[in-house]
């Protein structure tokens, strides 16, 4: 018996991220094209970097308010209003978090009592699962693969009815990682009716909102403001993943509780990063435009090219992922990705990592250069032809 044996049982029960583990395993393959992690391949805009540098030079190196600098919270409120028609008071309805991940952790921790149920439509980015479980939640998965990867209200009602504990929260992420699917207004309104009826929270992770390619992003916060916590940030929109600045916005009394967890976890977000984010949200309102157009071209290329080499795709309307269906006979996604990495030197993520409905698919990130995408498609084509000959 060691001291480690006495540690938090919920933490000990968690497995490390299989996505990160796989990414490390294949990193040593010489010449591999990695289409794995969801991180922009662009650099932070120059004027945003300079704002962060200037903050250091101006000796802005002390704690800020735990909720974030008032000026940044106002910039966030103005940005959310301008972009998505959301109305939040920066004084009491917004907290600045350590990336959207920090918002997920603080949000679920503040919401959940042990034994509560959290509903997760799958396939979904797996990070939400261990965070919910750390708070003692029961996680209920709703497979959306037969519904175009959209959570339908009848499936949500069924999950609520079959839950053996009080349903405390529904997690939505859209545009969705890993599928690239997004929700139309009518989809959200139908889910909002169910949420009003049963009175649970909606944690709406909209970090990819600016990377919407068809139509306009509709925030759940405009439809169900009294029960929704909206998560956003600058990681994907401004290529600032490493700066770790997120936004959580919602009803004042709910944000009060989320702010407590945020304070006790991180004290406050890094000060110079907050100045950089303020620059991004004020003078960089349109910084995403050229990135989005580049992503759109890559998406359009892959949607056409992948079926030609044997991988069917769904229509990704946001984010920077293709969720590609494997052919019959190759439906074991873990076996497929390991074999593809070894034999074709292309790395993609197995769909099985994203929960029920993900097996038989792979996630391909197109946050990569067009040159790398062309190389990857060529290698995948060679691999698929070799498999078919075999």
Automatic annotation (TrEMBL):
Catalytic class of the enzyme: transferase
Cofactor(s) demanded: pyridoxal 5'-phosphate
Family: Belongs to the class-I pyridoxal-phosphate-dependent aminotransferase family.
Entry-linked PROSITE patterns: AA_TRANSFER_CLASS_1
Lineage, broadest ranks: Bacteria, Bacillati, Actinomycetota, Actinomycetes, Bifidobacteriales
EC number in record: 2.6.1.-
Keywords annotated in UniProt: Aminotransferase, Pyridoxal phosphate, Transferase
GO biological process, one term: amino acid metabolic process
Recorded superkingdom: Bacteria
Aminotransferase class I/classII large domain: residues covered: 32-380
Keyword RNA-binding tagged: no
Any one Gene Ontology molecular-function term assigned to this protein's record: transaminase activity
Protein name in UniProt: Aminotransferase
Species of origin: Bifidobacterium mellis
A Pfam family reported for this protein in Swiss-Prot or TrEMBL: Aminotran_1_2
């Amino acid at each position: 018996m060691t001291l480690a044996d006495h540690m938090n049982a919920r933490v000990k029960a968690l497995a490390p991220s299989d996505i990160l583990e796989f990414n490390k395993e294949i990193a040593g393959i010489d010449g591999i094209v990695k289409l794995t992690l969801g991180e922009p391949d662009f650099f932070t805009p120059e004027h945003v970097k300079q704002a962060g540098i200037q903050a250091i030079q101006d000796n802005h190196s002390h704690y800020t308010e735990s909720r974030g600098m008032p000026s940044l919270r106002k910039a966030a409120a103005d940005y959310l209003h301008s972009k998505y028609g959301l109305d939040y008071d920066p004084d009491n309805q917004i907290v600045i978090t350590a990336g959207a991940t920090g918002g997920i952790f603080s949000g679920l921790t503040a919401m959940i009592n042990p034994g509560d149920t959290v509903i997760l439509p799958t396939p979904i980015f797996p990070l939400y699962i261990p965070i919910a479980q750390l708070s003692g939640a029961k996680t209920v998965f709703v497979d959306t693969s037969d519904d175009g990867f959209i959570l339908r209200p009848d499936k949500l009602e069924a999950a609520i009815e079959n839950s053996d504990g009080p349903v405390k929260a529904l997690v939505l992420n859209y545009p969705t990682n890993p599928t690239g699917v997004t929700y139309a207004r009518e989809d959200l309104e139908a889910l909002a009716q169910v949420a009003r009826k049963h009175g649970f929270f909606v944690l709406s992770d909209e970090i990819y909102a600016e990377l919407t390619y068809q139509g306009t992003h509709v925030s759940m916060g405009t439809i169900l403001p009294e029960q929704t916590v909206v998560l956003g940030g600058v990681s994907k929109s401004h290529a600032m993943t490493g700066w770790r600045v997120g936004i959580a916005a919602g009803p004042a009394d709910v944000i009060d509780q989320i702010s407590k967890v945020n304070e006790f976890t991180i004290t406050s977000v890094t000060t110079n990063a907050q100045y950089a984010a303020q620059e991004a949200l004020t003078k960089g309102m349109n910084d995403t435009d050229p990135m989005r157009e580049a992503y759109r071209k890559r998406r359009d290329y892959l949607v056409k090219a992948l079926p030609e080499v044997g991988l069917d795709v769904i229509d990704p309307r946001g984010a920077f992922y293709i969720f590609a269906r494997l052919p019959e006979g190759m439906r074991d996604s873990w076996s497929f990705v390991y074999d593809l990495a070894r034999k074709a030197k292309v790395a993609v993520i197995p769909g099985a990592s994203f929960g029920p409905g993900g097996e038989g698919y792979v996630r391909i990130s197109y946050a990569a250069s067009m040159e790398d995408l062309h190389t990857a498609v060529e290698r995948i084509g060679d691999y698929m032809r070799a498999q078919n000959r075999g």
